[in-house]
Amino acid sequence: MESLMLYLTIFLVTLCILILEDLSYKYAFDNNNQNIKFYHRKFYINGILKKSIFFLLAFFPLIVLSGQRFFVGTDYGNYLAIYKQIGEMNLRELIDKSKYLEPLYVFFNKISYILSNGNEKAIFYSSALLIFLILYLTLLKMKEKFKISLTLGTYIFLFFFFPLTLNIIRQMIAIVFVLYAFLFLLEKKSLAFLTLIFFASGFHNSAIILFPLVALNFIRENKYKYLFFLILLSPMFVASVLELLPSINLFSRYLAKYSIQRNSISIFDVIEASFFLIPIFLNRKKILKVFPESKPLFLISLLIIPIVVVSSYQFWFSRMSYFIFILMIYFFPVIVKVQKDKKSKLLWEIFFLSYFFVYFILKFYIVGTEGIFPYSTLHFVI
C-alpha cells in the first residue's frame, strides 16, 4: 500500500503542476486577431524558459522516481547489464554491438556512461528524461494546435504507460517518438514523419513496421473505405508475413526472446482494445467536424483489431499494440474538447479518469504486471 501511495502522490504532484500550466494558457489573449493565444501575457516570462520551468516542476519527481529505483520493473537487471557492458566498449566494439542491438540505444548508453562517469543510475535517469521530454514536447504541440488539455493527456500516460517506462524502456522511448511522428502525419509532413519513425526504430526496431503509414498522406480520402476493409481482413494474410520475420536479422533476436505461443484471444486484450476504440468511434463525427485532419488516425487506430487477433497466437506481437494505444493521448482529450455542452465534457472526463485509475490499480497493483510493486531503492523498500 505504501508503494501505491508513493506512485499516486507523485502522479498527483505532476498533474497539479500541469493543471496550473493549463490554466495559465486558458485566458491567453492575442490583441492582433482576438484569438486565444498559447501564452498568457500576464504569466509570460519567455517561451522556452516558461516551458522549462513547468517541465522541471512537473516531471522532475517522475524522473527521480524512475532513476532511483532498484530492481523495480521486470527488465531492470537486463538494462543495467547492457549499460555496464556498453560502457566499457571502445568505438569498434560499439559498432559491432550496433549490429545486434539498436544503434541509437547503444550510443545513448555510452553517452550516459561517459557523462555520469559510469554511475549505474545514469541510464535510468537519462531514459526517463528523454521519455518525458519528448512526451512533454508532444503535448505542447497538441496544446498549441488543438487547444486540448495537457493534464488529461499526461494523466492517461501516467496510469497506462508509466509502468511500462520502468520495464520496456527501449520501446517506450520509441513510442513517444512515434506519438510525435503521428502529429507530422496529420500535417502531411511525410519527411518529418519518416525521420521520426526512423529515429524511433533506432531505439526499438519494431517501430520500423510503421513506415508504410506514410502512404496515408498520398491516398485520397475517398479511398479510405477500402483501407478500412483491408485492415479488418488483414489477420487473414498477416500470418504468412510473420512466418518470414524470423529469417530477417532485424527481427530474429527479438522474436527469439518473445516466442511464447498462445491458443486463444486474451479477454484482457479485447477489453483494452474495446475501451480504446469505442470512445473514439462514438465521437467520430464530432471529431472530424472540428478536426477533419484526424481522419488518418482513425484508420491507424483500427490496426488494434488485427494486432489483438494476431496476438492470440503470436504473443510477442501484442507489444505492437502500444504503438497504437499511444493515440489515446491524442484522441481522448480531443473527445472532451469536441463536446458541445459542459455536462457531456464532464461525463467523458469522469469516464476517462475513472477507467485509467481502475486500470492502473487492477493491472499493475493487484495483478502485478510489469513488476513495479513494491517500489524500492538501494537503501529501502516501500
Layout of SSEs?
Blueprint: H1 2-26, H2 47-68, H3 76-87, H4 91-97, H5 103-115, H6 122-146, H7 150-165, H8 169-186, H9 190-201, H10 224-233, H11 235-244, H12 249-257, H13 267-282, H14 284-290, H15 295-301, H16 304-311, H17 321-325, H18 328-338, H19 342-366
Keywords: Membrane, Transmembrane, Transmembrane helix
InterPro entries: EpsG-like
Protein name: EpsG family protein
Provide the descriptors you would attach to this structure in a database record:
about 375 residues, mainly alpha, about 70% helix, globular
Commentary on this structure:
It contains 19 helices and no strands. It is mainly α and 382 residues long. It has a domain at 219-338. Helix 6 (122-146) runs parallel beside helix 8 (169-186), helix 7 (150-165) runs parallel beside helix 19 (342-366) and helix 18 packs antiparallel against helix 19. The longest helix is centred in the N-terminal third of the chain and has 25 residues, at 2-26. Mean pLDDT is 88; it is low at 29-45. InterPro entries: EpsG-like. It comes from Enterococcus canintestini. The chain crosses the membrane at residues 6-23, 43-64, 122-140, 152-185, 191-214, 226-245, 265-284, 296-316, 322-339, 346-366. Keywords: Membrane, Transmembrane, Transmembrane helix. This is EpsG family protein.
Number of strand elements: 0
- The outline comes out as globular
Class of secondary structure makeup = mainly alpha
Spans of at least 5 consecutive residues with low confidence: 29-45
